[in-house]
Amino acid sequence: NEVNKISGKNIKLSETMYDELQDAINRAKAGSKSGIVEVVNDSEFVRMYPYLKDLDFLSPQEKLVLILTEEEHPISEIALYTGGTESSIRAMKSRVRSKISQAENIPAHYRKLKIFKKSQI
């Protein structure tokens, strides 16, 4: 009986700790996304990458992944910078390529971006 009581308390404590950890992770992710929005909308960032104005159909996170790819950062670093995983970054790069390829009124030179190169896939 005594072991069962202690075990039950540990399970409740573990559940509480797990919930608190998940809440902290969710807050960190939300903060990371709002930070990405601030970076991508920063006037200096826009000045450095003016062609992003033509790609307003991309999300702020997709724009950041595009820029980091253009600057030849490896997927592992991009994942670290954006708070994603390597597989989520690969998926996002695929989405960016698809969106740019399907976009109307986008100059052809956008299809020469490094994100379209085989080594970046």
Short description:
The protein has 121 residues and is mostly helical. 68% of the residues lie in helices and 0% in strands. Helix 1 (2-41) packs across helix 3 (60-70), helix 3 (60-70) packs across helix 5 (86-102) and helix 4 crosses helix 5 (86-102).
Explain this structure to me?
- The structure is a single chain.
- With 121 residues, this protein is an all-alpha fold.
- 68% of the residues lie in helices and 0% in strands.
- It contains five helices and no strands.
- The chain has helices spanning 2-41, 43-48, 60-70, 75-82, 86-102.
- The longest helix has 40 residues, at 2-41.
- The termini are far apart.
Multimerization status: single chain
Percentage of residues in strands:
under 5%
Number of helices: 5
Mean pLDDT: 80
Biggest sheet features: none
What is Rg?
20 Å
- Going by helix content, strand content and strand pairing, the class is mainly alpha
Order of helices and strands: HHHHH
Form type: elongated
Topology:
Layout: H1 2-41, H2 43-48, H3 60-70, H4 75-82, H5 86-102
Helix pairs in contact: 1-3, 3-5, 4-5
Which keywords apply here?
121 residues; 0% strand; 5 helices; mainly alpha; elongated
